[in-house]
Every structure is written in structure tokens, then in C-alpha cells.
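So, can you check?
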Amino acid sequence: MKKRSTINDIAQQAGVSKRTVSRVINGAANVNSDTRKKIEHIIKQEGFSPDKKARGLAVRRSYLLGIIYDNPGTFYIDQVQEGVLDVITEKGYELIVHPCHYHQDNFVDNCLNFVKRSSVDGVIVLPPVSESSGLAENFRQRGINYVRMTSVKLDDPDKIVISDDRTAVEELARYLAAQNHSDIAVISGPGAYSSSIERLEGFCQTLRDLNINIAKDWIVEGNNTYESGIECGRLLLQKVPRPATIFANNDEMAVGVIKAAHDLNIAIPEALSVVGFDDNLMASRMIPSLTTIRRPVAQMASIAAKKLIGQIEGLPIQNTQSESVIPRLIIRESTSKK
């Protein structure tokens, strides 16, 4: 059996110091390009894998990153992990996920205890937890590296990745207007969430600019669940007159609307058009398939991971990617031209 190579073996073959090899392994910038390529080639050739525990001790890091979230859909978490792992695996980091209860009084202490207990080098915070200014302030005071995924600019550029939901729903409003939709209702998300506000305000304002006004009683608030989509959908569809188009704040509620319409024998899209937001797994697989807005969650998570590693490793802010991405409209079978 071939003896496992050590960092000393790599340094000897490359004709450099052990410290130079360590810099290459840790992604440090102060290494000559040709020297870096030579060392990386030898590392690959030898199948060298540094001992993570020893590596962590050497640079006072755990090489662990955390994700903090509160009960998003399974598909959303999968997308986040996919995006983060695409970035961190080659850097030698591992990932730990931590669920919390955002509305509990002790949730900030819960998150701080997680960081301390797991010794993570930094955390990515998902919405709606990411909207907590108190949590972010506690992280700053304690020198904890973090990046927030949100729908509005709540922090410094290196600590945030924004889904520009307002621009996305403006595109949706223009599309519906172009297809002659006018009797439009909205099921918004919880009013305390920034994403709900951005989507509702952006959608309604663009329709007003296009001379389409939504009646006050045709705007109802759900809680982003399938069940609330059924409840709100039934409420709207039993009105006289009833809306011919419903935009729901997320796909879960949009699917609930479709269920309510089915129960009331309202055909989709012939008698009712339905639009969601997120483009989760069920959106393309249900019948009829759902017109929705695809939020690039994996892309956002990748950017967040790069920003977080940039903080941990002291990289300049300009070396990290933009803080904002724009979701895009995906047109499927649940909408029709009026």
C-alpha cells in the first residue's frame, strides 16, 4: 500500500516551503501563479488531502459553516444546500444546518448558542430569520461572520444577497396586462415579511401604472401554506363578481388556490388563471403546470457562500459577487390569454 503523502512531501516535490503549500491549500492570494499551479498539480497527482483537524488548528478555524433557517419548504433547503456545497466543498469546508423558531422570544439566544456549540466559522441566514436586525446586531457585536439572504437591502454589501422580488413581480404584472387580464386578485404572504411587502407593492403599483386597479377586498393575506391557499382561494372565488386571475405570494398557496378552484368546479385556465412565486418542485409537475416566478435560490446561496468565505479568509469585498439577483417569470399552463 502506498504511503499517504504529507504536506512535507508536497513541499519537497514542489521545491517550496511547507508554508507556501499551506497557503495554496488555504486559498491565500500571496502565492505566485506558476507556483500555485505546480503545487496544485502535485496535490492532485498524489491524491493529497490535508487533515482538516490539523488544518483548522493551524489557522484557528473549524472549517464548518452553518445555515440558520425557520421551516422553509424542503425543496428550498435542498436548493440552498446545493448552492452552498458547490462553493465550499472545493475549499474544504463542511456544512451544518440549524432550524430555529423565528417567532419565539429566545430565538436569538438559540442561534447564538448554535454558533458557540458547533464552533462554525460563519453562518448563512435564510428568510424570514434573515430579516431580524436583532440577530444581525448580535452577530456583529460578537464578531461572528454572517451573510443574510433577503428581498431588500438590510445590511452591508458583503453581508447580504438580495432576491429582487419587486422587479420580478413588475414583469409579471406587465405580462398579465399584455394578456388582457384585468380582474386580478392577490393572496399576499404575512404582512410582517419584507418579501411579502415587496411582492404586493411591486405588483399592485405596476398594475396601477397600467390602469388596472385591484379592489381592496380582492387582496387577502395568507401565511404561505397550502392550507391558507385553499382558505384564501375559496374566499376569493366565492365573491360576486369573482376574480378571473389570482396571484399568490408563493407556490404553496397557488397550489391551494387550484385545489379550491377544483372543489368549486372552476376550470383552470379557462375560467381562472393562477400564478405563484418560487418555482418549487411541484410547480412543473402538477396538472395544470403552474405559471410562477423562479427565484434563483441555488445561485443566491452560492453567492452567499462566497461572501461568507471572503469574510472568514479576509478577502476584499470587491472579490465577491454582486449582492442582488433577479427572479424570472416562467409561463406554464395555469394562465391563459383573456
